[in-house]
Amino acid sequence: MPMRHSFVIICLLFLAGHVVFGQTTKARNWCLIGVAKVDVTPKGPVVLAGYGGRTTEHEGIDTKLWARAMVMGNKSPVAVVVLDNCGVPAGVTRRLAQRLVKHGITPRHLVVAATHTHNAPSLVGYAKVVWAGRMSPAQKKRMAEYTTFAIDRMESAVLRALKNRQLMQLEWAQGRVGFGGNRRVLNNGKWAGFGFQRNGPVDHSLPVLAARDADGKVRALWANYACHCTTVGSRNRVGGDWAGFANASMETDFPGAVSLMSIGCGADIGPVGSGLQIAEKHGRAIATEVKRLLATKTTPLTGPPAVSGKHIQLPLIKPQPRVHWEAQLRGSGWHHQLAKAMLAKLDATGSIPAQVNYPVSVWKFGDDLAMVFLAGEVVVDYSVRLNRELDWTRLWISAWANDMPGYIPSRRVLAEGGYEADFSQVYYEQPGRYDPKVEDAVVNAVKELVGRTFEMLPGQKTAPFHTLPSGEADTFNRVAKWAAAKNSEEEMMVLQKVRQLIPNAVPAIGRMLPSDAEQTEWFNFAGDHVRRVFIRQKAKGTTLRWQSPKLVENAKGSITLCFTGGVGWESAPKTGGFTLLIGGGEALQFDVTRKANRWVSKDTKTELVYLPTWTSPEDSGGFFFLTLTNVRPDTNGAISIAVRSLGRDSMRWFAIDAKQEIRTKLNKLSAAITKNR
C-alpha cells in the first residue's frame, strides 16, 4: 500500500476513535501538525551579520544555531521555518520555496522568519552594504557556502516536520514579558542616539501557540516577542542570543516539544541589560511566561489556518540624481559602497526605483486568531496602531518574515529622524528614506487581508502592552521578602535603623541649587528609568547642591531627611569617594555601594543610611536617610546640603531623582519592611 494512502487511513481511524471516545475531544479541532529542528551552526569561519564594526570572521561559538519548522495540514499544508539569523532576504526565501513545491508546500503557504540574532552568519543578499568591499574572495565564497548550507538545513527541517505530522489540538494565549525597552533617545523631539527611552512605545505582548497530542502532551510551541535580539552584544561569536535561550528553556520545560521563537515589531526596541548571562535571563523570562500561560486558560484553535497574502509597493522619497552618487563615490566607507550600487543601477536601467517591493502575509484560524507576517525590521508603531484599529485580543504580529528590505519606519520615526529612518537605509542598499505614506500602505494592506471580522470591537479597551509599567510594586514585594529573610548582621542593623527612622522622616529636597550637576535618565529605586541630576568622580570638587524644605526655625535634637537616588559604576577606579556637606561644612564621606550601608561623622552629629532597593551588577538605587543632630537652619528654616566629589578620573557617580514624592514612597517602604514582623 502506498505510504500516503496508509497515512490517510491511519488518520481517519484515529479521528474515528476519538469521536467514539467522547464529545470532550472535539474532533473538529484536530489538525495534522509536525515540528522539527535542525542544527545550522557554521562548521567553519564565516562573517557574522548585525554589527558593522566587525572586521573578521567569527572567533568562536557560544551556543548552537537552529532552523525550526512547524507544518500544519494535510492536502495543502502551511509551513513556517524560523532561522537563527539576523535576517532572511527574499532571494533565500525564494530558493527554499522552490525546493518545497514538489513536497506540496506552495510559496504562498510558506513563512520564513528570523530570530534576528546579531551573532549568526550573514546570508547572501542580507544588508549588502555592511560587508561590501571588506571581504576577500575566500570570505565571499564561505558566505555563499553557508547560505546554501542554511537553505539545505531549513529544507531538511520542513521535510522532517512534514514526516513528523500527527493529529494534535491547537491552542493559543497572550501573555506579557517586560525586558524590551524603546531604544530611541530623543532630544527636543529629535533622535539623539541609542539608549533607553522610558516614555517611548513598546510591545510587551507574548502570544503563544501550542499543539498537544492525543495524551495532552505539548509537542509544539511557538512564541513571539517584539525586541531586538541583541542582549549578548557585538562579541564576534556565534550564538542565538535571548531567542536561542528562550527556545532552549521552553524545550526544557516541555520535554519532547520543539519550540519556535519569532520576533514582533521590535525594530526600535532593545533589550534592557546586556551580556551572555542577561541573554539567558531574558530567554528564561519568555519560557516562564509560556509555562504560566499554558497552565491557565487558553483558546482552542481550528487548524490549519486559511492563508492570504499580497505584495505592495512601499514609497521612498525621490532618489538623488546621478551627480549626487558620483560625489558620494569620491568618499569612502558605506556611503561609497551605496554610491557604487546606485550608479550600477543607473547604468543598467537608467533609473533608481522609488518603491520597495514588500510582502505581507496573514494566517487566519477561523475567527479566533489572525497571524500577521511583515517583512523587514518593523518599528513598534505598527503594532501599536494595528492593535488599536483591530481586535488586539485576537491578533499576532510577526516581523522579520519572508524578506529583509531594511527598517520599516512609521510617521513618528520619520519625523524624529535618526538611525531607523535614515542611516540604516544605507546598510540595506536603499537610495533614501521612506515617504511618510509608508505607514498607511502597510497598515491598509494588513487590514485588507485580515478582513472585517478582526476589526476593533465597540468600546474596545486599549491594549495594555505598549507602555512600560512601573517596577514599584515588584520592588516593594522584593523588599518585603528581603526584610523577612535572614540577612547579614550589617544589613540587619541598617534595616532596623530604617524602621526607626521612617516614622519621623521628612522630605530632604525642597529645591535644587545651582551646581556642577548634570541631567540624565537612569534606573531609580524601583528600576524605572527616570530623570535625575548626578555628579561623577571625574574631577575633584564637582558638586551637587540642594536645599531642604522649610523645617523649623531652630532645630533642636535630631531631624531625619529622606530622598531617593543612587550610586553606581562600582567597577570604575576607586578614589576618595564623595563628601557630604551640611551648611557648607564637610560632615562625612561615603562611596559607591550596592549593599545596605551606614556612614557616621566623626562627631556623630551626622548619619547617612542607604537602603538600596534596586541593583544591577554595577549600580544601585534606593532610599537615603540623612539624620542631623543640633543643626541650625538658615533664616528661612531650610538646610543647605551638598555632595562633592573627592576623586578624579573615575566614572563612579551619585544621583538624586528629579521627582521625589517621598511621603508616598515612605508609606510603601514602611509597609514592606514591617509586613512580616
UniProtKB/TrEMBL annotation:
Domain Neutral/alkaline non-lysosomal ceramidase N-terminal residues, every copy: 32-254
Protein source organism: marine metagenome
Pfam families xref list: Ceramidase_alk
The name this protein goes by in its record: Neutral/alkaline non-lysosomal ceramidase N-terminal domain-containing protein
Lineage of the species this protein comes from: unclassified sequences, metagenomes, ecological metagenomes
